[in-house]
């Protein structure tokens, strides 16, 4: 489908509203993207016409809902070029996906084993590994971040050794937008015998993703950043990698046989989907990736980067502005600080102009510390933003600075 930003905007009902008397300029998609009618209507239709619990019923509504739920799994598998639908586990989101893997790997981690992560990670890809540090005696080893926001790959190579058991990095930083060379990171980790997991929560939104080409054991992402609903996401796992994990939760659906003296488990992915799943949300997730699949992903990435570049060019020469992470290989995310102003104050003033940005640590405190700041504001561009909105953002930011100057 030809890319037409204005036509795409018309598919998002919320983008027509006003905030503080101004047209909404939504630049907070890295936190959670807005939803197109295709997603809203798919979820409403499932509730209005054929809702029932999945897998265990034999009546018509149960069969229709099960078919829709499993069709969503197939859509997600195609979207990232997974080998099979059985490589896709539905979970609450990227955070639970990483926790599932860390919990499953916990049985294999011994005192003295090493887990490599980077200074650029979201807390969701830090805290679960700290659990293994606290509980199993593992050591966390950190890939340094260079001044432009890229990872120090030479330092990474030096960290790898026969004690390295896990390498967990993001595909794309949620703060700087820097795109990491994940295929190379995975290749080097595999040579060292380590398990690899990629946090793809930002990467899958802004980049064409082929999990087979990347080669990681696991790839995790959330639906709500991908124009889908909250409360649902996906964990991709290679067949052997998923089979090696112990179950994360116990209950219905994830079992084979249960008796008073023994239990067997279902095969993946159902082994990791205990209890009634987020059925409506999964259907919405499937609708979101089908909606996204209409477009050329590379064209979207180029368009979003064009918006980012327009804002950066217009802000050039303003020495009161600091952009965090200015690598060439990055997506359309701008984290920034304004001299003499707290990020929260900047965000509130921008909101008066109808511009929605995020402010705080962005769940990435080690990265904030690396750049010597306690917080930043963040504008994240999406396929439904326009050049005019990029200009509104720049003008509002200049006016915000004038209030602090």
Question: What does this entry look like structurally?
Answer:
- The chain is of the alpha/beta class and 405 residues long.
- Helices cover 39% and strands 17% of the residues.
- The chain has 15 helices and 17 strands.
- The strands form five sheets. Strands 4-10-9-8-7-5-6 form a seven-stranded mixed sheet, sandwiched between helices.
- Helix 7 links the parallel strand 7 and strand 8.
- The termini are far apart.
- The mean pLDDT is 96.
Key features of this structure:
405 residues, alpha/beta, seven-stranded mixed sheet, four-stranded antiparallel sheet, 15 helices, 17 strands, 39% helix, 17% strand, globular
Number of helices: 15
* % residues in beta strands: 15-25%
User: Shape, please?
Assistant: globular
Query: Total strand count, please?
Result: 17
Termini gap? 46 Å
Name the structural class.
Answer: alpha/beta
Largest sheet: 7 strands, mixed
Radius of gyration: 22 Å
Q: What's the rounded overall pLDDT mean?
A: 96
**Spatial order of the strands forming the largest sheet:** 4-10-9-8-7-5-6
Instruction: Tell me the helix content.
Output: 25-40%
């Amino acid at each position: 489908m030809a890319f037409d930003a204005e036509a795409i905007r018309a598919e998002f009902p919320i983008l027509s509203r006003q905030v503080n008397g101004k047209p909404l300029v939504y630049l907070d998609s890295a936190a959670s993207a807005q939803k197109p009618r295709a997603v809203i209507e798919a979820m409403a239709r499932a509730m209005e016409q054929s809702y029932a619990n999945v897998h265990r019923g034999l009546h018509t509504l149960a069969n229709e809902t099960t078919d829709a739920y499993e069709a969503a799994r197939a859509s997600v598998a195609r979207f990232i070029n997974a080998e099979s639908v059985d490589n896709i586990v539905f979970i609450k989101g990227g955070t639970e996906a990483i926790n599932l893997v860390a919990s499953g790997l916990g049985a294999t981690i011994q005192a003295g084993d090493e887990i490599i992560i980077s200074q650029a990670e979201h807390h969701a890809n830090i805290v679960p590994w700290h659990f293994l540090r606290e509980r199993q005696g593992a050591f966390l080893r950190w890939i340094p971040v260079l001044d432009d926001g890229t990872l120090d790959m030479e330092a990474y190579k030096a960290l790898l050794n026969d004690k390295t058991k896990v390498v967990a990095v993001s595909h794309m930083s949620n703060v700087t937008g820097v795109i990491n060379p994940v295929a190379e990171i995975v290749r080097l980790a595999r040579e060292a015998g380590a398990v690899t997991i990629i946090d793809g929560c930002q990467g899958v939104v802004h980049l064409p993703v082929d999990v087979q080409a990347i080669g990681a054991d696991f790839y995790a992402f959330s639906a709500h950043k991908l124009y889908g609903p909250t409360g649902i996401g996906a964990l991709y796992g290679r067949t052997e990698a998923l089979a090696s994990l112990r179950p994360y939760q116990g209950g219905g659906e994830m079992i084979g046989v249960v008796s008073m003296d023994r239990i067997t488990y279902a095969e993946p992915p159902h082994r990791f989907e205990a209890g009634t799943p987020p059925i409506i949300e999964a259907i919405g997730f499937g609708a979101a990736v089908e909606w996204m699949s209409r477009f050329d992903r590379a064209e979207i990435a180029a368009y979003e980067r064009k918006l980012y570049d327009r804002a950066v060019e217009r802000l050039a020469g303003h020495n009161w502005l600091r952009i965090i992470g200015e690598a060439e290989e990055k997506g359309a995310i701008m984290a920034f600080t304004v001299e003499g102003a707290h990020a929260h104050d900047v965000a509130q003033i921008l909101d008066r102009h109808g511009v929605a940005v995020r402010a705080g640590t962005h769940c990435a405190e080690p990265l904030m510390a690396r750049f010597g700041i306690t917080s930043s504001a963040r504008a994240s561009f999406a396929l439904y933003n326009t050049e005019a909105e990029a200009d509104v953002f720049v003008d509002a930011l200049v006016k915000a600075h004038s209030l602090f100057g």
